[in-house]
């Protein structure tokens, strides 16, 4: 399937450039989705972050270079993206458990990270409740945080914790009671700008305050909050009920490994939306487009 082929094409691109620059812009182009969406997808399929996979592959190949060549270790370090001998030595020892110099002077046990290859596995052991819906443009009001893309999975939970402590969560609940529009609930939205802006992303905590449909009255955005607009799109909307964060994480993993490869859809270049309701009820909104029309 085209979607699986694109992921494997990304892996081939990474493999061909382990000893040179790996461009996240090119990864986004090959995968036909934003770099943030691809990183999220990769982490749920491979059970490790994309950056960790690239680092481990480079350290694996670097070990073979040290064993099988007379090239200076500092030159090998530079080839695989390390600015100094010390930074390479620390990373090498952390991954392999030995100093790079020991590889040439002693018989050592090394670690290998193999090249990943993706294929479809049909499991069918559980159900996913979802609907496909054409939804008009809508506005979200809330707070926005700039986040380094590489640190998003660590930083985003901290953003929610801070919102609970500094009163932001209470203000959002107040806004939700006034609006109560779909996508409903407290929203977490990961937005990344254009493909060329891969270093940073924005993470929004907010509430839907306007939907572009007849008779919808816009709820005014408080002065200290910002607005974020999303265009009309096709959304795959999944129930993610249960305890957090496991319930939402399970949906993502099943979406990327089971639902998407067999759906006839591919990812649209729009943010992912998590809707947090009450009593362990959640929804995940993922924008998609038909492969035939993509």
Protein topology:
Blueprint: H1 2-16, H2 24-31, H3 35-46, H4 50-68, H5 73-79, H6 85-96, H7 100-105, E1 130-135, E2 138-148, H8 152-165, H9 168-179, E3 186-191, E4 200-211, E5 226-230, E6 233-239, H10 246-259, E7 265-267, E8 272-276, E9 282-290
Antiparallel strand pairs: 1-6, 2-4, 2-5, 3-4, 3-8, 6-9, 7-9, 8-9
Helix pairs in contact: 4-6
Structural class: alpha+beta
Question: Based on DSSP secondary structure assignment, what is the total number of beta strands?
Answer: 9
Q: What's the average pLDDT?
A: 87
Radius of gyration, Cα only, in angstroms? 22 Å
How is the biggest beta sheet arranged? 9 strands, antiparallel
Number of domains as seen in the coordinates: 2
CATH H-level homologous superfamily name of the largest domain: Regulatory factor, effector binding domain
User: Can you tell me the CATH class of the largest domain?
Assistant: Alpha Beta
> What's the helical proportion of residues?
40-55%
Question: Key terms for this structure?
Answer:
294 residues, alpha+beta, Arc Repressor Mutant, subunit A, Multidrug-efflux Transporter 1 Regulator Bmrr, Chain A, 2 domains, 9-stranded antiparallel beta sheet, 10 helices, 9 strands, elongated
């Amino acid at each position: 399937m085209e979607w699986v082929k694109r992921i494997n094409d990304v892996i081939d691109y990474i493999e061909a450039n382990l000893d040179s620059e790996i461009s996240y812009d090119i990864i986004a182009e090959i995968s036909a989705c934003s770099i943030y969406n691809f990183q999220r997808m990769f982490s749920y399929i491979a059970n490790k972050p994309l950056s960790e996979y690239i680092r481990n592959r480079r350290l694996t190949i670097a070990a073979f270079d040290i064993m099988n060549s007379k090239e200076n270790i500092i030159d090998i370090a530079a080839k695989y993206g390390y600015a100094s001998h010390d930074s390479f030595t620390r990373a090498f020892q952390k991954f392999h458990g030995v100093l790079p110099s020991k590889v040439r002077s002693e018989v050592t046990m090394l670690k290998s990270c193999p090249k990943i290859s993706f294929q479809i596995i049909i499991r069918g052991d559980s159900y996913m409740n979802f609907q496909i819906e054409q939804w008009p443009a809508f506005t979200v009001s809330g707070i926005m945080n700039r986040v380094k893309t590489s640190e998003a999975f660590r930083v985003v939970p901290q953003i929610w914790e801070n919102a609970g402590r500094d009163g932001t969560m209470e203000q959002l609940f107040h806004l939700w009671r006034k609006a109560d529009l779909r996508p409903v609930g407290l929203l977490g939205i990961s937005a990344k700008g254009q493909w060329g802006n891969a270093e940073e992303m924005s993470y929004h905590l907010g509430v839907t305050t306007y939907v572009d449909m007849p008779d919808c009255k816009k709820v005014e955005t408080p002065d200290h909050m910002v607005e974020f607009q999303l265009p009309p799109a096709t959304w795959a909307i999944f129930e993610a009920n249960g305890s957090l964060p496991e319930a939402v994480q399970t949906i993502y993993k099943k979406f990327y490994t089971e639902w998407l490869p067999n759906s006839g859809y591919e990812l649209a270049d729009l943010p992912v939306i998590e809707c947090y309701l009450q009593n362990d009820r959640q929804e995940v909104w993922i924008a998609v487009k038909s492969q035939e029309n993509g």
